[in-house]
Amino acid sequence: xxxxxxxxxxxxxxxxxxxxxxxxxxxxxxxxxxxxxxxxxxxxxxxxxxxxxxxxxxxxxxxxxxxxxxxxxxxxxxxxxxxxxxxxxxxxxxxxxxxxxxxxxxxxxxxxxxxxxxxxxxxxxxxxxxxxxxxxxxxxxxxxxxxxxxxxxxxxxxxxxxxxxxxxxxxxxxxxxxxxxxxxxxxxxxxxxxxx
Length: 196
Prior knowledge:
mainly beta; Pectate Lyase C-like; 3-stranded parallel β-sheet; 1 helix; elongated
């Protein structure tokens, strides 16, 4: 493990763990495999077109950072701050966001395959025009105000999360998994009114 050092992003080595390190800028295309970053900080805020294979981020901050058109395979974000981060146009395969603050996260026009969000806040996040393959799971997440417009929700499990409102396309709800209490919210989303 490498700890408490200042390094360039170009110095990240495959199979290495870094803790409390500070990383300066890189002018090269970012491509990493089997790297663990715990409580690290970054000068760079634009990670567009980067590749992350079997990587773990824990306790890192990416507030309003850009990861557009990036590729994540079996990558996990744990206890991270991802508010306002832009991952639009990216591909996430078998990746997870756990116990993270990700309000306003932008995942629009992404491809998600076997991804999950656990114990995270995703208030007013953007999942517009997302292509979902082999399911998408939200467990104990705050999805209040999350925007799923243009995204088919077949195979998406919302049943163990909470929200008072969502933006959804009623034509694309078929196959979405919700709990019985959430059904009342969906009835309201569809413009249906209860009469006693």
